[in-house]
Specification:
Length: 327
């Protein structure tokens, strides 16, 4: 089914300009098979990664930092797929061969994905040591480690990785993604070839969105904030989309009806993680844009911060809070 959507895209910062975009077509089969790399044409960091791969210059240890949700992990995943893809050389992986499939499912024997432990969310020294043993084990061929949440490395884990990187085994590569390089020990950062992942330009996002935007408020909000990495995940993984939708609706409801005391407990019951914060941020931005914020929301924002004993994690949240507090 083809239909035309007229979508207004605002730039990521709350008071920024608004760009009009005519997006057409819901997702079609062919588009579903497009790679992320195909869709972010013109995004500097993606082109740098592809060029490093094409010239066989991917470093032993690559660190990619930048704000959450813009597609850093998706970008690295596809670069790793390209490294193992069995199809003829091209700038992007084929997504169909056995290697591409195994990497997508996290099942490739030569690729190790290291995420925070379920209980703590942190990457422990044990995990780092196990990775080191795996990398040093004599084995033939390329081996790649991917740490998508570098911010969650404990100091001990970072030190264990440092030992591995001081004498990297032959044919071993490590990719580390984090939001802020300052959350990582300086010694680790100095070992890496460090790329800062800029927020994609409005032009890149317009093209990306025109390829597969649906009439879905959450997806539109993610596009508005140029969170194209999260947009990709939401689109390709219905279960994630459903979960985010639920959280977004809950947050939205709290924002709308915050005068009712029972809603405070709802606020407290939300899982506190980067997803919640981002969705909270998007909801807050929308209220500010649509001029439907209330004084009560100011208190909510402050309360949320106090509840979580945590400062705003992104510039956009900080900006939104400052705008509200100034009213
Ligand atoms: Zn492939």
């Amino acid at each position: 089914m083809t239909r035309f959507l007229v979508t207004t895209l605002a730039t990521a910062d709350v008071v920024g300009g608004v760009v009009s975009c005519y997006a057409m077509n819901t997702m079609q089969e062919a588009q579903a098979r497009k790679t992320f790399l195909h869709m972010v044409e013109g995004w500097g960091v993606a082109e740098s990664m592809q060029s490093l791969y094409a010239h066989d210059k991917l470093p032993h240890f690559l660190l990619l930092t930048g704000v959450r949700g813009i597609g850093k992990c998706r970008l690295i995943s596809e670069i790793i797929q390209r490294m193992f893809c069995e199809a003829d050389e091209s700038a992007a992986p084929c997504k169909h061969c056995a290697a591409c499939g195994m990497i997508e499912r996290g099942a490739h024997p030569n690729v190790r994905l290291v995420r925070g432990e379920t209980q703590t969310g942190k990457i422990s020294v044990d995990q780092a040591r196990k990775l080191r043993e795996w990398a040093q084990r004599t084995s033939t061929g390329l081996r790649v480690a991917f740490v998508p949440q570098g911010d969650e490395l404990t100091l001990e884990a970072a030190n264990a990785l440092l030992k591995l990187l001081e004498e990297p085994p032959k044919d071993f590569r490590m990719f580390l993604v984090a939001e802020h390089p300052r959350t990582l020990p300086e010694t680790l950062v100095s070992r890496a070839v460090h790329f800062t992942c800029a927020v994609p330009s409005v032009k890149v996002v317009k093209r990306f969105v025109s390829l597969f935007l649906q009439e879905d408020r959450l997806l539109r909000e993610l596009a508005t904030a140029r969170k194209i990495g999260m947009l990709w995940e939401a689109f390709h993984r219905p279960e994630i989309h459903a979960e985010w939708r639920y959280l977004e609706e809950t947050i939205s409801r709290i924002m709308d009806e915050a005068r009712v005391p029972e809603h405070w407990s709802l606020l407290q019951s939300l899982p506190y993680n980067a997803d919640t914060l981002l969705l909270y941020e998007l909801t807050l931005s929308r209220h500010i844009r649509e001029k439907t914020y209330t004084k009560q929301m100011t208190h909510n924002a402050v309360l949320l911060g106090a509840l979580r004993s945590s400062p705003p994690t992104s510039l956009a949240t900080a900006h939104a809070l400052t705008t509200l507090l100034a009213l």
